[in-house]
Every structure is written in C-alpha cells, then in structure tokens.
Inverse folding.
C-alpha cells in the first residue's frame, strides 16, 4: 500500500521522480469558489526552488506550475486540482556512479530492498525535489486559510549547525537565502557555508514554523490529534529527524507548575503547549520546531556496499545542497498549512461552524 | 470527522471515557491463525495499570480485558477482535470542582471549545486512561511481530525530570516501577518523586523505545513514511511534546561525514538514522525518543478561567500521576508495535514477501 | 485488509459472531449535542429482531443494546459511541453438522478459503445476525437526519417470491410482519410462507427503500457518488444480489425523451432518476430497490463437498428464516440512513451549509 | 470531502474536465516490477474512445496517454503512476446554450446546487469523458491480473433498448462497434440506432461483464464485500441505474433449492451466486450485469428551468452518444479489474498468499 496521499478531506496525491518527465500532485477536496491562479502557487514554488543562491544546489529548474483542472473562470470548482511541473534540467549522467552502490545516509538501499527496483537518477522518488508538489499544494491551503480563517503559517531557520539564530523579526526572513529572522547573523552563516563547501561536507539545521490565528477546536483525538498530524507531516519531510511542539524536549525537566499555561480572561499567560492541548488547538499560536540532518550527498569519500554486498567507496559529485535545511522553511510552512486546512474541514464536517463558547477567547471558523 | 482509528490495515478503533461504563477497542485486520488469549493481553495491561507503586495514581482498576469476538478455539479468525475493559473505580465526586473551570495544561478548555459539550468526569475522553485499549491492541501486535517476524519492541525511561538515566541493561527495566534500565539509580528516582509529591507538583520524563529485528523495506513514502507514522503515533500519546528518531535533534549540529551511517558487508557501522532512511526501514534497530510533559493535574493552585470567561483559581485534588512518564513506557512500546505491524501488512500487500537482494544484510517478512 | 468499517466521516465499525459472547459496533463521527438513549436504538432493533412471527427464525434474542460510551448526560459528545449486544440464545449444538461440510449457497466455503479458519457456529461472522449492529447504528443516523435535516428513510416489501405487492400506504407497513405496504395481500403472503415451510424450502424477495426530504447536493463524484455508495451499502446486505436506483433496469428500454425527468418551477415532473443525477442528490426522493435471494439454509438435502474435497450431502436443521427478505426492510432503511448521514457530513466539510441557489427547489442542510 | 479516489490499496485518483486542458489519473499502489508501456494502456483507451463509428459521438479525441511517472526502464517501480491525456477537440461553442439552463436528466442542476459554481463546458467534470482515465488505470490492473493471477475481465452488450442480444461467442465482441457477442444481430442494432438518431432520441442498454480465473478468498466482509465494491464501482459509471450479481433480480422468485449452487469434487454445479458467497469470491466466474439509462442529451426539446428558477426549453445540439451504453463495455471491464486488483492486494496484506485448502477447487494468488 503506497502512501502518496496526504490528508483525509483536503488530500494531496504526489507523483513523479527527480529525473522523470514531470512531477506534480492532485489536490482533492479544496472548497469551491476560491480565486486561484498559477501565480498564487508560483510564488511559493519560487521560495523553495533550487539555484537561488550559491549555498544551495545549482540545478536549474524553473519549477513552472501548470493548473490542469479544478479551476474555472479563475475560481476553484470543488473538483480535483491537478498541478503539473515539468522537469527540465535532468543531467542524469551526473548520477551514473550510484547505479551499483548505495550512498550512506541515503534511501538508495532501502528503496532497493523495498521494491526490488530503483530509479537511481537523482535519487528518483526519494529526491527532495518531490517536496515541490507539496509546496504547490501548500500554497493553495495557505491561501484558503488566510482568506477564510485569517490563519497565517510562517517559518524561519533557528539554527544552522552549531550556530543558533536568535529571532529578531519576521521581516528579516525574506531578505536572506537562509530564511534567518536575523539580518545581522547572515554574514556569519555565509562564511560558515563557504567553509563547509570547501570541506566537501554538509551540516544540519533547525527550523521553526508557526501558525497564528488558529481558532480553538481543531484536532481529532484520540489518534488524529492536531499535534500528531503535525508531527507526521513534519517527520515526513526529507531529512527531518525530530519534531517538537511548544516546549518540546525542554518539558522533560519542567515542573507542572511551570509548564501548564495559565489562563486569564484576556487569554493564555504563556505558550508551553505550543497551541495544542489534548490534541486540539487551544487558540494559542501553533509553534513547531524540527531538526534537519546534514545532506548525505557529500564529496568526502565514504564506505558502503554494492548490490551484491561487496565493499565499495562512494563519493558523490553532482549538484547538491550542502545544507538541505536552507530550503526547508517553505516546505515546513506548506505542511503546517496542509495539516491545518485538513483539520479545519474535518472539524466543520462534524461540528459545523465553531460556536465560541468563551467570550474572551474568540475562535471562529468561517467558510 | 473523528479520528479514533489508528492504522490503515491493522486498525484499532478506540472507545470509552475515564468514568463511563467501559473502555475498549476493536482491532480490524489482524491476520488469522494466531493463538490469542486474554492472558496474552492482560500481561501488557498489567504493566500499564494504575496503583502499582506509590509513584503513580492510586485509582484502583483491575483493567481486566474481555475478548468479545475474533477469536475461535483459541485462534484469531481474521475478523474484528473487540476488547472490553469495564471501569470499576469511578469515584466521580473527586472531579466535581472542574465542572465549571478549565484546568491549565489540560484538555478541558479545548474539548469544550470543540464539541460544545464535555464529559468532565476524570477528564472524560481526554484521560490517559484511554491508553489502556491502545496497550491491549499493542499486545496483539507485539505477539504477531514476535512470532511471525522476530521483531521485539522495548522501551525504557531515559530521563526523569533533570535526572538522566544512563542505560545499563534491559533486565533492569522490569524490576522497578520507573522502567529505568539502571537499578542503581532507582533510589534516587524514588527520593525525587517523594519530594515532588510533597511539593504538590509534577515533572516530565524522557522515554526511549526501540524495535529490533525489523527487516529492511517497511515504510510507504512519500507521505506514509515509517518515521512519519512513528512520529504521529508517539506525538499522539497524552502529554508527549517531542519525538526524535535516531540522532534526532543532535543531527542539527552533525556534519554529513559523521551523520550518514556507513555500510559494510557485515552491516551498518553506526545508527544515526535510527533505522529509517528515506522513510523506509533499513534493517538497523528502530530507535525513538519522546519527551513527556509534567502532569497538569497538580495540587498547587493555578490561575484559570471558567466557562463564562471569568477568572478562577484551580486546585486539583483526586488521584493523579505526578509523572505521567512513569507509566508511558508500555504505551510507547504498544504504539511502536502497532505502527510496525501496520507497515508490515502494507508492505506485504504491494510487494508480497520481501525478497532479500543483498545477501549479507538479510531482511525477511514471513507470514 | 479487513473491511468492517462502513462510511468515511460517520463510521460504523462492526464486530462479533453469531454465537460468540457479544456483537456490536463503534460509531465514530456522530455530531455532538444530539439527545440519545438506548430506547432510541432499541426501537429499530426490535423491528429487526428474530422470533417476532412464525415466518422468521425462532431463535430467541432480546437484542438488548447497551451504550458504552459517547453519550454524557443524555447527549452525544462527539466521541465514539460503542454499542454492545450480548448474545444470549447460542444453542450451538444445532450447527454441529456443518463443521466439516460446506452448505451450498453459504459463506462456509469462502470463509474457509479466505482465512483458513472458520467459526462454524451459526455461520459465525457471516451470519445475518451481524446486521443488528448496523441497524443499531442506523437508528442513530436516522435520528440525526430526522431532527437536523428533516430526512426520513423508509422501506417496504415490494415482492415476495413471485407475488408482487402493490404499494397502498405506508401505514400498512408497520402492521404486518412482512413490512408489506398492503394489508389486503398479507393473508396471501402468510399462506405462501406456510406452504414453503412445509416444503422445507425458502424464497427470495424484493425490498423498496426510499428517503424523503433529501436536499440537492449530496454525493461526491467522481467515484464516491451518492448512488454508488448506496449500491455498495445495499449489495453489502447479506443475500442481496441486485440494486436499482430510480427506473433501474427498466431504463434499458426507455428512450431519453422519456427517462430524463423534466423540471418545472414547482419541481421535477417525474422521478426516473431516483433522486440522483451525476452522482449527486437532486432534491427528488431517493428511491432504491433491492433483490434478496432465498435463504440458503433449507431442510431439503443438497449436494456439496467436505473440507478434504469429498462429496457430501447437506441438510440444514436448526432455526432459520425461510425468507431472509422478511426482516430486510429495517436493515435496508438503516443502510440508506448511514449513507445519507455520511454524505451530509462530507458535503458540509467541503461546502459548509448548502446555499440554495434555485429559489423554487429548496434544499437545505442545517446542522 | 471529494471522492475522486477509487480503491484502498490500488488507488486511482482521477482529475480533469471535459473541456479543460487535460484529464488523467494517478495510480498509487501498483506492485513494482511489472513491464508497462504507453501501448499497454493505449489499447484499452482506443476501445473506449469517441468517433470510432457513426453510432457514437463524433468528437475527435486521440486520447493519447503519456506516462509521467512510476515506470523506470520499462517496469513499474511501486511508486505512483501518473497518466496524462491532453484534451484536443474542445469546441466549447457547442455548449453555450446550457450555461443558464439545466438539461433534464443531466448533472447540471446537481453540480450547481452542490458547488455553487459549475464548469458548463461539455458537462465539465460530470462528462462521460472522465471515464477515460478510469479505463487507462484499468488497463494497468488488467495487465497485472492477467500476468500474475491468470484473471481475465471481459464484457459485452446484452441488450440494446428492447432488443435482447443472445450471447454467441466472445470473438464476436471485438468485431462490431456495439461489443455485441453476436455478429448476426449487428445489422438490426445498426438499423435501430440509425432510426433513433433520425428521431433525435436516445436509448438505454444492458452490459454484462465477467471475470474468469478469480481464486476463492477475495472480499472483505462485513462491509467491503467483493460484491459490494463491484456494485459501487458499477453504479459509479455515468448513466448506470442498476447492478446485478449472478442471478440478480431473478433470485427474488427463486427457491432456495434452486438458487444455492451445489458443489461437487469437480467444482460448482451452477453459478447463481455470480462468483460471490458471503461477500467473498468462490472461485466461480464473477458475473455482473448493469443497466445503462438513455443519454440525456437529445435533440428533442424538453422542459426545464434556468438558474433563477424560471421555465425554459432545452434542446441539446453538439456531439453526443445516442446510446452511452455502446461505449460502456470497456469501462465496465476496467472497473471490474480495478475492484479485483484492489481486493487481491487487500487479501494478500492480511493473509499472505492464498493457501488452497480444498484440493479440487484450486485457487491461488501468486505475486
């Protein structure tokens, strides 16, 4: 049973390989009547696309999206929205050296074991390139959340390797290729990346992502809790190894008298919860943090085996991100938006429009 | 859309409230022909049940399970296995003081906002008591994984509040109420808990859980990756705020030349991956770590609001775990087992029995 | 992958065997805030239960339902509603003769082939007894549809064997054990059944079921069309071999100028559509007709084989309905209600409340 | 919640509109390692495509399929197979007259009511053109069923309007545009259709579809019975109003001593069951019959209303099939194949390869 569909009511079915003819997705369940154009989607794809700075892969892909269905006279019709992105820069010769051997840290070995056949060109299906359709679908979700519910999802880099990035302001995020919320630290990040590239090595990163304007009431316990679905979506991003909500791992050493966010008639006094209590949104901001491992494709030679189990040494040439975390921010935002729209529709199915029962902590779902 | 079913092929549908007549679950998709008795399930329920030491809630529940269906002449028939646990110790008077106010850190407020109605007796549906049916279902999954695939899932406490618990040996785990893999540290943990109870406060914990014997090939990318489904299951446990696989958050500061596990003809040289590459199991051990927040129900008075939005002070009396993490180990094991059996069946659906293609890193799924 | 869950948003997970300790179901997704008691459910179970006339099985089952969860202070809470019915009359000795042989027309052979193990007591899981939990869940759906949307689902017998039953009036349906909408024909039906029992044989029947008050707009094409889901639900009833919507098989010989229902400002001029156009409800009444095969358990000896493939003669003694169609009416009503509530919630998820765009053909979904 | 995905393990997600840029689908869950080319799919699309005789719509569409993903070096990889068909003959001016009025018997009114917005060009999403992606996906399913399990699905026309078509031989089916299994009757069918076109009217049809080589054991009761899923798939075809399995509606007047198929060591003595007992395949041929209503788009003027509820007269010009049943045979075959492959994978998930327990009625699932 393949698992290429995300969501239950607002579903995204992803297809394609890194070096096949095209990648894309089908969105099913988008509410009708929303204005939607290719430009609405392109703006998010452009934030993720490769080749935008010297710190990311130099593969040249315009990532131009075509809407194939589901939009009529500029509006969504409630029927499936198919999005197509043609692959254009498929220099597959770069990847010839990995046909017979498995790159350490990569999915080469596991795809081979699972399917008995593997598209080795650029990582095939396991390539981070397949986050592009997710980002495209996320753009649709973001637009609906913003226009109908006043919800915004935004992300930023909070650490690059061992360098923590103190949050200064959201405005900084869009002004540097790292999505760092801190303009001052950018030169240091650039130096760090330049040294790393020279070493032929790669590094991890930490990304923060949050949503504001989320009403109380979203989430479907016992199992499809909002935080559980966020954790799944985030851990499903290529290279992610950890997910925290709110206080996260810091809550291990917290006392109950510190962790539990007190409430006042004006709202919550803190946000250790990260916006989720009992698996349901509380009306606080949703705050998430994710750990991204270093890119596995590095120029440094590494020990591995080949298909028949013999020792082999692998060096990866070709075009790779030395820190996949750099382009992860728009991806994490997209996934948070996709989880939220799915839960907004799920909530509406069973409960209809939210009726705010506590006057001072307002929370609405409008169509 | 309610989300009370876990899994896609081996599904668990959970029902019940803390103080209603009964709790339980229906397992659908369990393969036929496996010997199964109530004793097989009871053993896991007994590991989780309350009242077993002075460090956990004193609620008296035998948590006696009854198999209502799906087993004939001592064997599973492939039809739904319904498990029933009657609630017996429902002293609901303990909970009267939370009818009108919302306990900080609890799901009181969010359930109220979501459904407009809330069973306030003992937390109702949001009570950690509802992990019992999950543990019962997990016992069935564990048995199948052990007998048919040679997979074991085991957990332990790795930190209690600020006290790290160095791993010594699995044998220690079952000999103390903390599931600590370190007998020597137990007196210190007991002292710590005694002091905490005296303070009327609570504390967080960190739990490690792992699976051995997992063949390569389990996991369904792009979205239903094995690590993603593990993250969902773990984050879905009451009070969990963070999930790591393998190196987890430590991978942020790792270099690619360190993180990517090298392979040799004898196997992997390390396990930063935590047993998952590209969302598919690699044949390494699956290693997971989760952060559990401190119990929100504490005797210390806290600020909150009531249903009409006025200020209120909340003190929680009654029977509560001062560290919900203490009983979390069998729950985390159960969930890891439930994810693994689901993915084992999903793999088999599409691929049939795994054909091991690399001779030296063997990986099998047998029925 | 077992298929014991019906529906997508209002789901019913069915468990139990004919002669096991209990049967029941878990309803997940019922909207909160609806008054619900065991009496609301019992009334529908009593319409279906055995032993109510000499024309049906004489098995004595009170079919007493217990609500285990999901209702608090008399109202649904939006969490799973578990319903339990204990089996009380399990005279399993009646069924000893079918342990080693397969009854023609029965599921004995196919369950054996599928699972390799089979609960032979009273048909085990394949018994029509398992329609009781479906009827119980249908009672909950019916109540919600009636109270929140003004929808009624009703059925009747339209033919018993070769005897067509002309529709006279709904009032007649509840006054005879056949659910015949025609009091005058009842003596003839009774005679017919008496003769049949004397012959040791059984007979088929045709049941009509319809829904009134259904708004336009329910149904999720392309594949989850309303008529498609109705067909699935109906064909899923034990012994059903055919399903028609509207004109059904008569439409084969109709011309387009006759079949297509003309519209006027006052409404549709006919109902060949059976209330569904393009897979979406039209606001006309939903009309369905189903064919039910004769009971396979008959006293007449029949040729078959045993488990090792040898010839065997099978005679079925014990307690059986000579026409399973007699008790099928409440089952068909329940399933139509379950499909409609599921589609009402699905529609609401994506579209919110229906906005009636044509003033004269009003159609509303109210919570 | 949109319902554009068919199946649970072998899923088909359909997208597109009659006059949009493209139609297509994404298949998820196809087992890896099967040879697959565009030619394998094109052959089935060509059987369904318009313009192949004077008795069907004259719209010119090559229905050329492009495989966008999921196939590498000529073999399926186990990842999603995206299929794209560009629309080329979109003379949308033909359809201008239905922008403001609802055609009787069409989905115009119900789409408008459901979504509040409607792509009126050629029926938009409700067009029978959208069966093309289903047929394309069915070609993949057919190939796998044939090569791995020895299952064949085949269909034929069994009645055109009031003309029954006695079955003579399968060879005849592919030699006439009606898919009639009877060469002798073809001239009469042609005359009938010519007269109908002259009248500006349309007619219904009955289609038979069957599968041979199906092993015992496929089907997932209680609700996802094989017959139930077949009924859903068939009723989901545009214009279908009735579905029968085996004896179908004839079973209403059958006695149990006639209907129940006796078994002998050599196999079943009859096939009233249509190959399904208790919702599980029996090893007999699967036999299905469906009723297709007459096309609603006819030249004869008909009464209707417009969007504001006023009376209107509708005449449909443009290119339409006077009997949609003529092209329905390959569609029904495709859907039967899609249901069977889905159930074959579902069975394998829970049970592994079928173990034949009765030696003389062999039934295998091989990968």
């Amino acid at each position: 049973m393949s698992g290429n569909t995300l969501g239950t009511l607002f579903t995204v079915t992803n297809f394609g390989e890194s070096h096949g003819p095209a990648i894309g997705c089908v969105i099913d369940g988008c509410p009708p009547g929303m204005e939607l154009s290719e430009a609405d989607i392109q703006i998010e794809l452009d934030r993720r696309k490769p080749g935008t700075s010297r710190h990311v892969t130099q593969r040249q892909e315009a990532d131009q999206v075509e809407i194939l269905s589901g939009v009529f006279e500029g509006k969504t019709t409630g029927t499936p929205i198919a999005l197509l992105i043609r692959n254009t820069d498929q220099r597959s010769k770069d990847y010839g050296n990995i046909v017979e051997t498995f790159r350490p840290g990569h999915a080469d070995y596991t795809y081979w074991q699972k399917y008995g056949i593997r598209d080795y060109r650029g990582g095939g299906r396991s390539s981070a390139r397949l986050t592009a359709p997710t980002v495209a679908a996320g753009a649709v979700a973001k637009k609906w959340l913003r226009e109908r519910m006043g919800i915004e999802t935004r992300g930023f880099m909070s650490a690059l390797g061992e360098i923590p990035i103190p949050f200064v302001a959201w405005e900084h995020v869009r002004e540097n290729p790292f999505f760092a919320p801190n303009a001052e630290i950018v030169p240091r990040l650039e130096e760090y990346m330049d040294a790393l590239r020279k070493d032929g090595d790669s590094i991890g990163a930490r990304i923060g992502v949050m949503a504001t304007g989320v009403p109380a009431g979203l989430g479907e316990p016992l199992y499809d809790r909002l935080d559980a679905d966020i954790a799944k979506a985030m851990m499903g991003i290529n290279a992610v190894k950890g997910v925290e909500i709110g206080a996260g791992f810091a809550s291990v050493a917290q006392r109950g008298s510190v962790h539990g966010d007190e409430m006042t008639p004006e709202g919550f006094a803190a946000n250790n919860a990260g916006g989720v209590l009992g698996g349901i949104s509380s009306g606080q901001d949703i705050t998430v943090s994710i750990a991204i491992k270093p890119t596995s494709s590095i120029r440094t030679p590494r020990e591995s085996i080949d298909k028949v189990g013999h020792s082999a040494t692998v060096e990866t040439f070709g075009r790779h991100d030395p820190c996949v975390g750099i382009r992860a921010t728009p991806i994490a935002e997209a996934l948070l938006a996709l989880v939220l729209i799915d839960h907004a529709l799920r909530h509406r199915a069973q409960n209809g429009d939210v009726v705010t029962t506590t006057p001072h902590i307002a929370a609405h779902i409008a169509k």
